[in-house]
Design a protein that fits this description.
Elements lengths: L13 H4 L2 H16 L6 H22 L3 H7 L1 H17 L6
């Protein structure tokens, strides 16, 4: 399996030319925002996750990287998420039983 998570892809977009300190601070802010998403209210959670998805997609489009490259880099993550989902599906007891 060729893992490409976090691999640098050279380019000449506005994001590639941005100051590295700004990129690091922006990533930290994004991670903090993701962890602060309320998980106990479903409509709010869906709106937050949708907004974060749109934001992430817009960052990919601004970077000029092909969507195929991004999806190829996410293969390992999708495998891990699927494996985790299946483990939880068969091991976690439903609430109230």
């Amino acid at each position: 399996m060729n893992i490409k998570i976090g691999q640098y892809i050279a380019g000449d977009s506005i994001l590639h030319r941005l100051d590295p300190r700004i990129k690091i601070m922006s990533m930290m802010l994004l991670i903090i925002t993701i962890f602060l998403v309320p998980i106990n209210t479903k409509p709010v959670n869906i709106i937050w996750m949708g907004a974060l998805f749109v934001f992430s997609l817009s960052i990919v489009l601004l970077s000029g990287i092909r969507i195929g490259q991004v999806l190829q880099g996410l293969k390992a993550v999708v495998f891990l998420m699927t494996f985790t989902f299946l483990i939880q599906l068969f091991t976690i007891q439903p609430e109230g039983e």
